[in-house]
């Protein structure tokens, strides 16, 4: 499988991975480069102002609507909605960086956006200091959550190609290799 060729022609791309790994920044770049709608589960689905989590039923209804659109990049790792998202995806890009890279990414994000709302987050949700639970999520991601991702991909998207990106360099290389010439 040549991920660059697949990405160059994909209409619907799902980007998943551990928090802090760079998936949101990468998703926005993919969307911009390939002129796809950028959809963020954090911004568009999960969170309401004040870090209030939207009702799960309402989240699923929003996701159901979003996946029916023709051309998108969806950034978000909620495995509980893979049943809705994977069957509509042409390609899954799994940002699977080492935990130290994800933790460094998280701390860079916090230092840049602490107290303000970052671009792909819902209004009224300023970047907080990470708590023990969030740090534990990142620390244990590969052991606890990655196997669930694999199981859900096998169940709901067995024919959807998955490209695993293990570094920011691999993400950058994929963007360069999949780029479309700009219209003149």
UniProtKB/TrEMBL annotation:
InterPro entries: Cytidylate_Kinase-2 (IPR052922), P-loop_NTPase (IPR027417). The lineage of its organism: Bacteria, Pseudomonadati, Pseudomonadota, Alphaproteobacteria, Hyphomicrobiales. It comes from Rhizobium viscosum. Keywords: Kinase, Transferase. Coiled coil: none annotated. GO terms for molecular function: kinase activity. This is Adenylate kinase family enzyme.
């Amino acid at each position: 499988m040549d991920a660059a060729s697949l990405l160059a022609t994909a209409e619907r791309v799902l980007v998943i991975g551990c928090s802090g790994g760079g998936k949101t920044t990468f998703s926005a770049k993919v969307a911009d480069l390939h002129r796809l709608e950028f959809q963020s589960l954090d911004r568009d689905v999960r969170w309401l102002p004040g870090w209030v989590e939207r009702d799960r039923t309402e989240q699923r209804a929003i996701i159901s609507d979003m996946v029916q659109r023709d051309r998108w990049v969806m950034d978000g790792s909620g495995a509980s909605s893979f049943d809705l998202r994977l069957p509509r995806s042409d390609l899954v890009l799994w940002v699977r960086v080492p935990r130290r890279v994800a933790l460094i990414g998280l701390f860079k994000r916090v230092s840049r956006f602490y107290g303000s709302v970052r671009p792909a987050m819902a209004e009224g949700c300023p970047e907080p200091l990470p708590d023990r639970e969030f740090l534990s999520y990142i620390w244990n991601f590969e052991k606890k959550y990655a196997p669930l991702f694999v199981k859900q991909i096998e169940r709901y998207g067995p024919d959807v190609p998955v490209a695993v990106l293990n570094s920011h360099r691999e993400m950058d290389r994929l963007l360069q290799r999949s780029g479309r010439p700009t219209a003149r």
